[in-house]
Amino acid sequence: MVEYHSKIAVAVAAFVFVLFGAPMGALLGRRGRAAGAIAGFLLAAMAQGMFVWARTLAQRGVIPAHLGPWLPHLAFGLLGLLLLVTLDRLRLRWFLTLLFFLTLGNLSTAAGPPFSEFWADELVVMQDATVLEGRNVRAKFGEYVLEAETLRAREEAEWWTLEAEGALLSMPDGKLRAERLTARLGPEGELGTVTAHEFSGTSRFRGPEKEETIVFSGEHGVAEFAAGEVVRVEARRARFTTCPCVLGAPYAVEAQEFVLLPEQWLYARSIVVTSFGIPVGWLPFYVARLGEEASPLFPEIGRVGEDWFLRWAIPWTLGEGMAGAVGLTWYPGREQVDPSLDTVWEGGSLALTPTTLRLRVAGQWAPGPWRGSVSLAPAARAADVSGDAWGWGWALGWGRAERDGKVFERVPEVSLTRVERDWLGGSLAFRASGGAFQEEDAAGWRLGASLGWSRAWQLGPLSVALPWQIAFSQYATQELVNLSISPSLTAGALTLGYGGRWQVGRSPFQFDAEAPQSQITVGVSVGMGTWQQRISWGWDLIRGRALPLTWNVSRPDFVWGLTFASPLALERSRWSWRTKVGPALVTAEGGVRGPSWQWEDTRVRVHWAEEGVNVSGWARVGMAPLNLARLALSVDWIVSPDWTFSGAAEYDTRTGNLVQLEGSVLRSFAGCLRVGLAAGLGGIRLAVEVPAFPQARIRFAPLDEGLRIGE
Description:
11-stranded antiparallel β-sheet; mainly beta; 4 domains; 64% strand; lipopolysaccharide transport protein A fold
């Protein structure tokens, strides 16, 4: 940047010399020509010396890069203006105005490209400083640093276009190297697009287990940015892996065409998966909406009961943002083929099988957002659509279900809701609804409306809350009114509350019928150091009896809860405890149930971890009489970063059965590919997985679930 501004400042120097030299000669007159020449020469020498001095300060970073070359011009330009004013103020007033605008325009054009820092061994400035050409360039803009053997920067409308060869672009989360690179920069140095030819690089991201680095390369790639974030990536002949290198990597994926909309959509064509340089899989294309459940990458072989099956989901797309899969499931034993269709798009999805249909849609219209769903199954069918409009919530729903020969249906129900957050200092909620219903043998229409309000007051040390709700329901031959109120008063550790619900009338249905209630509750919470305890109790005014009394005592490593029925008969006692002893963590829990003090089994867990060895033990102990009911033990031994051995066993002493016995070995290749083999009572399992991508997982168990792809 110093060199760039220096070249422009040198071109403007002649104008500055004339600005202070001409009025000096006019002030000295004809008799002072010699003195004027000498004074002009001295001032020019001083300007040149000041230029070299200010430029050196700018190169060392003492003053801003764009200020150094212009500092002498500012000083001597102001001197020239003062001389002009002294010479003839009235006649030169118009000239000073014109000069001001010319100077302002000159400084604005000298702003240069949007680089915060710029270094170059050679720099050429052309076409009124709108074109730059440099060699061995290092430019910084925003959070990015571009290094290139050659660079050409050209101003175009609101963008600067950079064309670089032998380029290295350093980003906050990685690096990109390309033989040829083209980038568009905004006025503040923000990236618009980056196009790379014959590129390679790395990018860091957070995986499910640890920080991962993806290594990639390709023939041609384009990335689009918005507000500093990548919004679209396209690539041809792209190849990537999370292993340290691409060539000979334990696994690598190559695609002839690759399109990614981060967190939205992924499309890849002609995919080849290699392991140690050997092709092990191929797909014609793959498409998925990110954040949604994707179709498996490869065919799936498994078993349901005694029947084996082969399932293959063939992906398809009709354009960006829409992804789907046509699935075929073949059961050789049944001689049956079941088709399926899954589609996901922006704001919706569709899942279709021979017996079920699930549709979900969402959108936006002038009054507000809306959403809808349809679900069809043999035992239940439902359709709903809802949304917001001008501060109101609306919904329209239909449903029908059959259970044990009985029919439940709403055909349909319409509702309107509104919530006012600040009405008389509280929250007001209103709902109106209407529809036709069938519940077993009862059928008819229903109209309803409800109004509720709640507010809390702080009166010195007292906190008072008063929520209430009233609801009206009208049926063909009956009416129903529901009123509920639940005030509460809190004073320090003491809380008093009341819950009341009353009904006037009767409903022919069960779904909106509520039992009357009238209860008084009292609670006390006390803390002392790390100990906390709370006691709560109440009285049921309708039944005329006390509510269960609960007493909870706790601290960070211990919890004990007691529940008493009236009159103070123990209903249940539960406790849990945990402590850490060196590298071991011990937890235990148990309890007593009923007035007869029936002991529950006590469960004890111990976890010990140190220097690559993890040991977990679990025991279930019967308390009356004291006996060991079940015992389990598991061990994980990380021999090295590449090898892990595991074993687990579980024995039920009451039945005398060995519930679990399994051993496994796990081999990790370069930390990016894991292969495991496990053998146990349930058979043999083989697992292959990529830790960075949970979907890239293959499991095969000949005696168990069969071949599974993905999570």
